[in-house]
Amino acid sequence: MRVLFVCHGNICRSPMAEFVLKDLAKKVGRDDLIIASAGTSTEELGHDTHHGTKKELKAHNIEFCSRHARQVAKNEYENWDIFVVMDSANKRNLERIFGADPQGKIVKMMSFVGSSADVADPWYTGNFELTFSDIYKACKALLEQI
Predict the structure, then answer these.
(1) How confident is the model over 3-37, as pLDDT tens digits?
(2) Is residue 13 among the annotated active site residues?
């Protein structure tokens, strides 16, 4: 199973989800999962994970590594089993990049906990704790479903 988390700039929410799911998967022996993240914009290309995301991951003893933000490419649609987006704008932007979602691979993060809500972007809210809480709950539910 190949999971790609997607947010706007790939420095806050999607890398947070990537490292959370990797941590959860490791704890239950799911080494078969391929987990990564990307963004829909080019604004943060090459930047490392946001310091607020790193701080929140450290607070929960979740390992992470240095990385570079990247944008999803049009030709990646067939490379992933599921694209987990953080909000409705990410979903629309990803559908624009791909041209469509014929296989229904694009799903909102909070749908795994039965919600249609967006994951708040801490770049704007400053509330990395709330974002982590939503992502952690949704990642646990996602892992149970795959």
Answers:
(1) 999 999 999 999 999 999 999 999 999 999 999 99
(2) yes
Active site residue 2: no
Q: Which of 23, 87, 118, 121 is catalytic?
A: 121
Kindly report the pTM of this predicted structure.
Answer: 0.97
Choose the catalytic residue: 12, 13, 87, 134: 13
> Going from the N-terminus, what domains does the chain have, and what CATH number goes with each?
2-145 (3.40.50.2300)
- Residue 27's H or E segment, with its range, is helix 13-27
Catalytic, 121? Answer yes
**Residues 7, 12, 87, 139: which is the catalytic one?**
7
Cβ contact 117:137 at 8 Å: no
